[in-house]
Amino acid sequence: MNRIFTIVSFVGVPLVVAGSFLHWSSVIMFILCCVSIIGLSAIMGRATESLTIISGPRIGGLLNATFGNAVELIIAIFSLKAGLVGIVLASLTGSVIGNLLLVLGLSFFIGGLKHKRQNFSLRDARYNAGLLIFAIIVAFVIPEIFSQGMDDRGTISLSIGISVIMILLYLAGLFFKLVTHRGYFTGSDKESHGEQEEEEAEWSKGKAILILLLATAAVAFVSENLVHTFEDIGERFGWSELFIGVIIVAIVGNAAEHASALILAVKNKMDVSVEIAVGSTLQVAMFVAPALVLISLMMPVQMPLVFTVAELVAMITAALLTIVITLDGESNWFEGLTLLAAYLIMGIGFFFL
Amino acid sequence: MNRIFTIVSFVGVPLVVAGSFLHWSSVIMFILCCVSIIGLSAIMGRATESLTIISGPRIGGLLNATFGNAVELIIAIFSLKAGLVGIVLASLTGSVIGNLLLVLGLSFFIGGLKHKRQNFSLRDARYNAGLLIFAIIVAFVIPEIFSQGMDDRGTISLSIGISVIMILLYLAGLFFKLVTHRGYFTGSDKESHGEQEEEEAEWSKGKAILILLLATAAVAFVSENLVHTFEDIGERFGWSELFIGVIIVAIVGNAAEHASALILAVKNKMDVSVEIAVGSTLQVAMFVAPALVLISLMMPVQMPLVFTVAELVAMITAALLTIVITLDGESNWFEGLTLLAAYLIMGIGFFFL
Amino acid sequence: MNRIFTIVSFVGVPLVVAGSFLHWSSVIMFILCCVSIIGLSAIMGRATESLTIISGPRIGGLLNATFGNAVELIIAIFSLKAGLVGIVLASLTGSVIGNLLLVLGLSFFIGGLKHKRQNFSLRDARYNAGLLIFAIIVAFVIPEIFSQGMDDRGTISLSIGISVIMILLYLAGLFFKLVTHRGYFTGSDKESHGEQEEEEAEWSKGKAILILLLATAAVAFVSENLVHTFEDIGERFGWSELFIGVIIVAIVGNAAEHASALILAVKNKMDVSVEIAVGSTLQVAMFVAPALVLISLMMPVQMPLVFTVAELVAMITAALLTIVITLDGESNWFEGLTLLAAYLIMGIGFFFL
Questions:
Q1: Which candidate in B144, B324, B346, B350 is best for mutational testing of the C interface (most C CBs within 10 A)?
Q2: Predicted TM-score (pTM) of this structure
Q3: Cβ atoms B334, B112 nearer than 8 A
Q4: Are B336 and B107 in contact (CB under 8 A)?
Q5: Residue C214 buriedness (CB in 10 A; 0-12 / 13-18 / 19+)
Q6: Would you list which residues of chain B are within 8 Å, Cβ to Cβ, of chain A?
Q7: What is the share, in percent, of chain C residues with pLDDT greater than 70?
């Protein structure tokens, strides 16, 4: 699996470079960029994992939390630079529903085909449920509803205020999980870290950092090219900006994570699998999204934290469904299928919109 | 009890036949039709139960799932044929809130007057909670919100897509409960079926099938007459189409089921009582509603899966209230009263609308 | 603590009397009124507590339930008399989100700094969760949505109907907790009452009643003066009617309760602390709000039970967040911080609105 991702990156990136000079057609560039990004994010994942093992659970947790959604953040920054605010908000939505419904659904479904019932930490599930409600149902809904009675300046001020609060709460959450209440969460300490400590790091510290930096630079370059294909691709296939953002960008930006969640589910390590899917959602909602709002202040077009009603409803219902399905700390194939069915329904909805 | 229903049917149906030829007044026909349908659905319930006992839990479960809401389906088909799309959607809404709030509320309240606290299966409650969120909060909300930005063709396409997905998921749920995870749900296996196996079937296989067919035909005939009284009745009593659908049709279509849920609650078999109320809701939401969308494609007027905002809000809040109240696997009279109060509030709301 | 409140009252009330004759500036009067009300409500709390201890848990529970939000009720009645319907609805909203997010958040946070994890009764949490969903998500949402298709008479009729149902259900809930299922709720019987019985009443029955009556009269007088400063204060500080109601009035009206919830949280009596915060919310939603609707029928301007969308969304999301965070019967500092962050976000939202 790892070898495939490496080959894909080493072939894909040079082709993207070539294509960007030779002005290849949008379709070819779109495919090349998508494939390269998937390969590169797998490499970044491995580098981050090595660093995590070397630096111990505390700093490792911080590293994971920072680089876990780096690819998404990079694509979003280049989209913001190109003024595609709509695509950024759509891709954040896609990340949330993709992680909660597609990844968690596939993990539960495929894991459930092999194991009659799989368990995961109740404490984690509850911690995650509280933050999902906070981030998606409180922090995303408030600006949507309140901004209807505001001018643009009020909306941006409110967005900035909320973004700062969310990032601070996100950092407080890391402090809570990694410092004051470490060992309280089974999932993150006993199982995953316990095991990682047995493992040896794949790469040395220096090598891992170098690879991380190179891969990040490559992702940035490829992302810039990817972003410029969106308009053409949309016209050619009849895909709306919304559909490209919610479905395509979100899947490409999260593909590597998706693969590891799935593999862990089959190995019956549902704790870590759920942690990846839901943890990544929380990271997107509580860190990536507010960070992008703040970053956009330095961009030509500012991005308020205001999703469309359709995006908001998709995220809220996805969060509620996930919370109710995970609150018992158990999963089976049918729960996975239910999540997948919800994803499919939303996908069809965004396609026809 | 059974005898009363039989007498009612044997007197009511001939009177409906007579009235339809002699053009009796709408009020008399409305009352006769309602009473006959209640009687007939009790008979159909007994026939289905006999067949269930004879054919064992698997096929029996399937039979129950198919014929459980047959009466409602028949009334809805005749309403669709008469072009009354609004009444069909309203009666589906009424079925959902009637089952979740009125039936479950009465069961909890009356059962709770006799027993200080009653228990039911936690596994069932969680399975049901997940599907309620899926069906009502995801699958019904998405077309409502998304269709606002679509033309009629997009809305119908989305409705068809969602309907197919819901029916497939419903069938997968039956497969899950009856095949791969049988014995996993206490409610459906130990208590209800365990007991039914001790019981003897009331009627032989042949007799049960014959009665089922005859009663179904009679229900169809009476339903067609009932549907034609709606306009007159609405004008005479000042009831809106919405009120007739949500309150009247829903109560008539589910009366027999309601009676058995109540009787079981008093007997302290809360497991089966909850299963009837919530299971029937899920059947309406995940099978009857999408089936009607697909059936309407062959009718003069097509029915999209788009409820009014009031209907949707009534169903969503009913689902959330039920989930929170049932998630602990316990009930008492006050929880029942809370559900009934919510039903009353919605009833007043639909009356004034 | 108690001494400070007494001094504040004995100095504040005479100053308000003086100011109202000498026409002092609005800012000074506003501050004097707020401080006096906080002091007086602390005294009323002590008198109620004495009466509760003397009259035993049943009548005591009833007394607590009636006088617990007396200050709020009085301020609201004077606001209604002045025709400030918008401020009354806003202050009810502020009471709900203030109790659920600010008080509960502070209790969890400050209690959690001292104790790694604090527990409270699961039964209470579930009872409260059911009623929160009923009151805020069913009874407040239905008139909002349904009134959009109604004329004013329909809206008022629906509001009256819902108000009567809610008050009856609230009384039934008291009957349930204090009579039929007493001893069922750990929080209310073993811990809090058990302890109060050991304590001696601070004041005799006669003295407590006299103090209660005098303090109530003083609160009424001060409230009337407070209400008349709102317009000036709003203009001078750029605060909207909404912001004054949601944040200022709500904090002043509940300050004494807030203090006792906090003190109990630090003493690790989280059961009582949660009971105060959530119980007070339920009282506001199920008793104070509907009572004000009925009282407003005798006023020049009638108050329908129709909040603004922003108010409704704030209350719904606060209720959902609280339910998910309290459903496990445990709290820690981070859960408290999450609730506080949600309050802050809403506060910013109402400020910019």
A1: B324
A2: 0.89
A3: yes
A4: yes
A5: middle
A6: 122, 126, 129-131, 133-134, 137-139, 141-143, 145-146, 148-150, 154, 157-158, 161-162, 165-166, 168-169, 172-173, 176, 180-181, 184, 323, 327
A7: 93
Give me the half-sphere count of Cα atoms (radius 13 Å) on the Cβ side of residue C216.
Answer: 16
Q: pLDDT, tens digit, for every residue of C191-200? A: 444 444 456 7
Number of domains in chain A: 1
Q: Chains contacting B with at least 3 CB pairs below 8 Å?
A: A, C
Reported in sequence order, the residue ranges of chain C that DSSP labels E, i.e. its strands, are 118-119, 330-331
Which of the residue ranges A131-140, B114-123, C301-310 would you say has the lowest mean pLDDT?
B114-123
Token digits for C43?
């005294």
- What's the confidence (pLDDT) of residue A49? 81
In 10 A of CB B171, how many CB atoms? 14
- Report CB contact under 8 Å: A321, B130: yes
CB A344 within 8 A of CB A331: no
User: Got the DSSP string for A46-71?
Assistant: HHHHHHHHHHHHHHHHHHHHHHTTHH
A122 versus A15: the higher-pLDDT residue is A15
> Chain C residue with minimal CA distance to B317?
C138
The residues, any chain, with a CB within 8 Å of residue B118's CB and separated by 6 or more, are B108, B111, B112, B265, B268, B270, B330, B331, B332
Contacts 24+ apart (CB under 8 A), B49-53: B49/B196, B49/B201, B49/B202, B50/B201, B50/B202, B50/B203, B50/B204, B50/B205, B50/B207, B50/B208, B51/B201, B51/B205, B51/B208, B51/B209, B51/B212, B52/B196, B53/B196, B53/B197, B53/B199, B53/B200, B53/B201
Is pLDDT at C253 greater than 90 in this prediction? no
Q: Which pLDDT value is given to residue C108?
A: 93
- How many beta carbons lie within 10 A of that of residue A161, not counting itself? 19
**Partners of residue A330 on adjacent β-strands:** A119
The beta-carbon neighbor of A341 closest among B150, B165, B180 is B165
Q: Encoding tokens for residue A10?
A: 């080493």
Query: Cβ–Cβ of B313/C141 closer than 8 Å?
Result: yes
Q: What are phi and psi of C240, to 5 degrees?
A: -75, 160
Q: Which domain holds residue C25?
A: 2-352
Residue A7 exposed, middle or buried by CB count within 10 Å (0-12, 13-18, 19+): exposed
| A180-191 per-position pLDDT tens digit | 877 666 544 444
Q: Is the pLDDT of residue B343 over 80?
A: yes
Would you say how long chain C is, in residues?
353
Task: Tell how strand B118-119 and strand A330-331 pair up.
Answer: unpaired
How far lies B306's CA from each of B99, B136, B145, in Å?
Answer: 20, 12, 9
CA dist list (Å): A72 to A93, A163, A251:
12, 18, 10
Tell me the pLDDT tens digit for each residue of A213-258.
Answer: 999 899 889 988 998 888 888 889 888 888 888 888 888 888 777 8
